[in-house]
Design a protein that fits this description.
The chain is of the alpha/beta class and 177 residues long. It has one domain (2-170): Spore Coat Polysaccharide Biosynthesis Protein SpsA, Chain A (Alpha-Beta Complex). Helix content is 37%, strand content 21%. The chain has helices at 28-36, 53-63, 75-86, 103-116, 137-146, 150-154, 158-161; strands spanning 2-7, 22-23, 26-27, 43-49, 66-70, 90-95, 120-122, 133-136, 169-170. The chain has a 7-stranded mixed beta sheet with strand order 5-4-1-6-8-7-9, with helices on both faces. It has a two-stranded antiparallel ribbon with strand order 2-3. Helix 3 (75-86) packs across helix 5. The longest helix has 14 residues, at 103-116. The two termini are 28 Å apart.
């Protein structure tokens, strides 16, 4: 089972409430969910901090996403909560403030990760905000148990790619097209 998990938040030190800024006639987070809806998976989840539920819930429902809320500061634990609530084996991870995500690259990357049984997969060489990651649930649960630093928990995957001796990493250069 594969779940697409999109993370979003309202507060940001650089641009507060950027996920809710208009992109056309809808909030950016809705546009991101629209784009990601083209990824074939078993379930689509929007994960947010508990204090953002009232803002994101109607948009998630309209876009066909299940809303799962958790810790504001510990985003890794939020992803592990998605794993526990869905029983997922693999997560395709995206962020809600990146409206130009490349859907074809996300689909290809996840296929490669599954074929290689990679714990973590992420293309290198994509423009900032365009990429996604594919992560095994077992690896994320281990990272949650073992990671200690704030940055390893706030940014979800640093523990994984910071420990290539433990995890199977797939970080190919993004395809030219």
């Amino acid at each position: 089972m594969t779940v697409l998990a999109l993370q979003a938040r309202l507060d940001s030190s650089r641009l507060n409430e950027k996920a809710m800024l208009p992109l056309g006639d809808r909030p950016m987070i809705f546009r991101v969910m629209e784009a990601l809806s083209f990824i074939s998976c078993d379930k689509k989840v929007l994960t947010c901090p508990e204090d953002s539920v009232s803002v994101f819930a109607p948009l998630a429902e309209e876009a066909g996403f299940t809303l799962i809320s958790g810790s504001k500061e510990d985003v890794l634990s939020r992803y592990c909560l998605v794993i526990r609530k869905t029983g997922v084996k693999r997560i395709i991870r995206a962020t809600g403030d990146n409206p130009f995500v490349f859907i074809d690259a996300a689909i290809s990357l996840n296929r490669e990760a599954e074929a290689l049984s990679a714990d973590y997969a992420g293309y290198s060489g994509l423009p900032l905000g365009a990429g996604v990651e594919s992560i095994s649930s077992i690896a994320l649960l281990r990272a949650e148990k073992e990671s200690r630093s704030r940055s390893e928990r706030e940014h979800v995957c640093p523990y994984l790619y910071g420990h290539p001796e433990i995890f199977s990493l797939h970080r190919p250069l993004a395809p030219r097209m």
